[in-house]
Design a protein that fits this description.
- The chain is α/β, with parallel strands linked by helices.
- Helix content is 26%, strand content 32%.
- It is built from four helices and ten strands.
- The chain has helices spanning 33-39, 61-73, 88-95, 119-132; strands at residues 6-12, 17-20, 25-28, 46-54, 78-82, 102-106, 136-141, 144-147, 151-154, 159-162.
- The strands form three sheets. The chain has a six-stranded mixed sheet with strand order 4-1-5-6-7-8, with helices on both faces. Strands 2-3 form a two-stranded antiparallel sheet. Strands 9-10 form a two-stranded antiparallel sheet.
- Helix 3 links the parallel strand 5 (78-82) and strand 6.
- The mean pLDDT is 89.
């Protein structure tokens, strides 16, 4: 029996940021998520949809509705969403209304393009969680899996914590 593909939806966030020397600031660039999965030799079938390139602090209600609609309309029942960490929990609340799908949100505290980024590990964890978790909304960050509706970002500690 063939493995059901996983949908990977990219929305932007630090995970896809790039540093431009001339501007002396980070900007969200073309997504590197598909490249990370290929370099990691992921054998499980997947499909990547680059939905938007936004910092999560700039996401609007309309953006979250677009993310929700794209996931709800997709044939895949297992979904990974790359997302900025600052408002990841807000998006999780919106996506919780989608029945029958396992949705895992993931981000990074350092851009994937950095050698010492947490992005590859976090993405791998999200990919595994998406295959093993029951339907619902989950957040995977830095070695932990959280119920997407029972977690918050602790900015001072630089990590996510259960609530």
């Amino acid at each position: 029996m063939p493995l059901a593909p996983i949908l990977v939806v990219t929305t932007g966030g630090t995970i896809d940021k790039q540093y431009f020397d001339a501007l002396s600031e980070y900007q969200i660039a073309e997504s590197v998520i598909e490249k990370l999965l290929r370099v990691s030799r992921v054998a499980h079938p997947f499909r990547v949809v680059e939905l938007m390139r936004k910092d999560s602090l700039e996401l609007t209600g309309e953006d979250r509705a677009l993310i929700k609609a794209a996931i709800a309309a997709a044939p895949e029942t297992r979904v990974v969403v790359t997302h900025g960490t600052d408002t990841m929990t807000e998006t999780a609340k919106v996506l919780a209304a989608i029945p029958g799908k396992t949705i895992v949100l993931v981000g990074a505290l350092a851009p994937a393009r950095f050698a010492e980024s947490d992005a590859p590990f976090n993405l791998g964890m999200a990919f595994a969680c998406c295959q093993a978790a029951s339907p619902g909304v989950w957040i995977t960050m830095n070695g932990s899996v959280f119920d997407g509706l029972k977690v918050r970002k602790d900015r001072e500690a630089g990590k996510f914590a259960e609530i």
